[in-house]
């Protein structure tokens, strides 16, 4: 049987005017700032007006470690949101925006799939409402002002060898990872070594996603450390006096974007830090606003639960005072087989033994999530080649772990296929059984926090860090930053720092290459193994297949 592609399904969607979607949430038309007919931003005055409302139930969707077989976390997030609406709940979805880099590289878009999508899909995966461009511009403004300050006499006595503020671009471009700037003589400034990260790794992105309002945004931007003096004292963004202009550039980007699912249910799509190199969650503003205007909010955390969910719990929930009422862990039979040693080309054939062998990865994620005190439901994202015996094997394994697995066919059937999952999730969320707790206390030393994540979440024997890194962490503690949470930058494909090691490995260590203080965002970034904060394109980028057809429609995007 031939199935329509995601983009074919999205183009056939019967979208409603965005004002009607706002009506479902009780948002007055004057508080919608339309971007065309099918998307709009929500005014800050409306956001402020609902803060006294009772909060709804928060559902976190996460997943096992991603494999080439596909897991479908965003698809499940959207499908569950539609399913909750189908069973009579007032629910909405909160997901992240897509980065251009992965869209044109290897990962593809981030709007769901099949009959569980958010639309307009093409807009969401490209320029959307310009939020990422605003973040890139604000970041670039600060970069320019730092070098300009040095050029015009360096009144702050910045040590140009210790400028830690890098540049960003929303594209995968390995050639920019390490560069020399200001070449060309006296008129171009003082040559120095620097580099680029991808926009989603920018501290500005993290701040936008954690800030509560524009005042908080400006204060956090001002608190960013951009360089050090010769005496190693920090130079802040506020010393450069850039935070005001940066806030002006980010004014509209701070407002959540309202769109709709294929079934015309509301969705906020806002912010987009990656989970492997940043904190991996959509904006606090979007999530907290959604909780005030819907009874159920379904959100996701990027990549596997060892990255996205861990950071959702330890960073986002800690900073925003949130607590999930239920966690949905997405897995597929195909991914279990791949974790069990089956090659991608052979995934179509039934192999119950491989499914059982591959379930160890799933089991570790279940145990990790339960350690946060939250109830866990496994959603088996159905693929058409899955057999009953394979599905039963996953269900039996999950039951042994003290949880439950529910087959969800939202990709094929939309909300009809996710109604059973939605019913059970709603029951658990409404039961009040969640006893959420973070993994570590604020007062724990930074190195101990890193070791706690490595041992409790990755099940590593320990952490490998040289004296330079340990000394840097101690200096930050002495400067008053010891209470910050940790943001691990690590490969998403494995519990280890080796992306080829699937399953649930033990006996490994976590090597730390670098640590970065994000004082404005309020966390310490720990760069592990070979992970890059500026990705590269694959040998054959997805961009080679993306074009406009004769009818002016986009082809190859998804």
Automatic annotation (TrEMBL):
It comes from the Bacteria. InterPro entries: Formate_THF_ligase, Formate_THF_ligase_CS, P-loop_NTPase. Pathway: One-carbon metabolism; tetrahydrofolate interconversion. The keyword Nucleotide-binding applies. Its EC number is 6.3.4.3. ATP binds at residues 67-74. Keywords: ATP-binding, Ligase, Nucleotide-binding, One-carbon metabolism. It catalyses: (6S)-5,6,7,8-tetrahydrofolate + formate + ATP = (6R)-10-formyltetrahydrofolate + ADP + phosphate. GO terms for molecular function: formate-tetrahydrofolate ligase activity. CDD domains: FTHFS. Belongs to the formate--tetrahydrofolate ligase family. NCBIfam families: PRK13505.1. This is Formate--tetrahydrofolate ligase.
């Amino acid at each position: 049987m031939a199935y329509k592609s995601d983009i074919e399904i999205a183009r056939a969607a019967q979208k409603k005017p965005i004002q009607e979607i706002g009506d479902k949430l009780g948002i007055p038309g004057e508080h919608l700032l339309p971007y065309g007919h099918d998307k709009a931003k929500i005014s800050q005055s409306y956001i402020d007006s609902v803060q006294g409302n009772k909060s709804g139930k928060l559902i976190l969707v996460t997943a096992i470690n991603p494999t080439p077989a596909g897991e479908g976390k965003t698809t499940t997030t959207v499908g569950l949101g539609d399913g909750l609406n189908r069973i009579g709940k007032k629910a909405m979805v909160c997901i992240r925006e897509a980065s251009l880099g992965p869209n044109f590289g290897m990962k593809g878009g981030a709007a769901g799939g099949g009959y569980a999508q958010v639309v307009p899909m093409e807009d969401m995966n490209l320029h959307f409402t310009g939020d990422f461009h605003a973040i890139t511009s604000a970041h670039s403004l600060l970069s320019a002002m730092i070098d300009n300050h040095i050029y015009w006499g360096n009144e702050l006595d910045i040590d140009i060898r210790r400028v830690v503020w890098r540049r960003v671009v929303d594209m995968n471009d390995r050639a920019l990872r390490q560069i020399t700037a200001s070449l060309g003589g006296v008129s171009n400034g003082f040559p120095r070594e620097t580099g680029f990260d991808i926009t989603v790794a920018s501290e500005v992105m993290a701040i936008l996603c954690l800030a509560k309002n524009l005042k908080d945004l400006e204060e956090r931007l001002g608190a960013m450390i951009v360089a050090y003096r010769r005496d190693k004292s920090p130079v802040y963004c506020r010393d450069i006096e850039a935070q005001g202009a940066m806030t002006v550039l980010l004014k509209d980007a701070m407002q959540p974007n309202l769109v709709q699912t294929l079934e015309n249910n509301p969705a906020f799509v806002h912010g987009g830090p990656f989970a492997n190199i940043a904190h991996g969650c959509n904006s606090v503003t979007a999530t907290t606003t959604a909780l005030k205007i819907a009874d159920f909010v379904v959100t996701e955390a990027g990549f596997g639960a060892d990255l996205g969910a861990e950071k959702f719990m330890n960073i986002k929930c800690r900073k925003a005072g949130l607590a999930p009422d239920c966690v949905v862990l997405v897995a597929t039979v195909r991914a279990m087989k791949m974790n069990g040693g089956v090659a991608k080309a052979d995934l179509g054939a039934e192999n119950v033994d491989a499914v059982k062998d591959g379930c160890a990865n799933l089991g570790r994620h279940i145990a990790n999530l339960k350690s946060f005190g939250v109830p866990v439901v496994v959603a088996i994202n159905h693929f058409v080649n899955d057999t009953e015996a394979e599905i039963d094997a996953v269900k039996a394994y999950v039951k042994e772990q003290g949880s439950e697995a529910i087959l969800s066919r939202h990709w094929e059937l939309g909300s009809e296929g996710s109604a059973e999952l939605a019913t059970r999730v709603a029951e658990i969320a409404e039961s009040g059984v969640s006893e959420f707790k973070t993994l570590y206390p604020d007062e724990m030393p930074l190195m101990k926090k890193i070791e706690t994540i490595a041992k409790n979440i990755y099940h590593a024997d320990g952490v490998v860090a040289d004296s330079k890194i340990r000394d840097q962490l101690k200096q930050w503690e002495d400067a008053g930053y010891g209470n910050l949470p940790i943001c691990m930058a690590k490969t998403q494909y494995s519990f280890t720092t080796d992306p080829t090691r699937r399953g649930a490995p033990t006996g490994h260590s976590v090597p730390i290459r670098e640590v970065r203080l994000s004082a404005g965002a309020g966390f310490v970034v720990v760069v592990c193994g070979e992970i890059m904060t500026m990705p590269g394109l694959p040998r054959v980028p997805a961009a080679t297949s993306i074009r406009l057809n004769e009818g002016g429609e986009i082809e190859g995007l998804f």
